[in-house]
Amino acid sequence: MAELVSIREAVAARAEGMIAARGDWPCRKGCDDCCRRLASVPLVSAVEWAGIREALDGLPVAVAEAARERIRLSAVGERPFTCPLLERASGACLVYAARPVECRTYGFYVERDRVLGCERIEAVAGEVSSVVWGNHDGVAADLQALGEAAPLHAWVDA
Description:
This protein has helices at 2-21, 46-57, 61-73, 101-105, 119-127, 136-144, 152-155; strands spanning 43-45, 86-87, 92-93, 109-111, 114-115, 134-135, 149-151.
């Protein structure tokens, strides 16, 4: 668990630094653009899933069961899709404190050939060359050290 906390802290520091350097950064509380247009189901390790499961268990039973059913359906849904952990009416993550690291990197990290984020983040990437993006491959390597990762739906009934 200490390794996961360390990864989360590093990602948070990167995000906070980017927001501080550019006051009009699109990613902030209240934005759920990425969550509403996911290309694939987030991959999570067993340690990440344990936190998500605990957060789901702390929700009202009906809310948690609805989220679990959306997680199950994410295995076969059309792409792009809305994150099954998103409370759609408010746009808030049901398990925000336990959300996957993969979700925490959206809007702040890049893969070799693309920015991970919505159209607004892609626009920032296209117009501002001074942004120092996080390295998604580095985070992915750190996450691999936590153990095998699988899509959310693989864990929900395990």
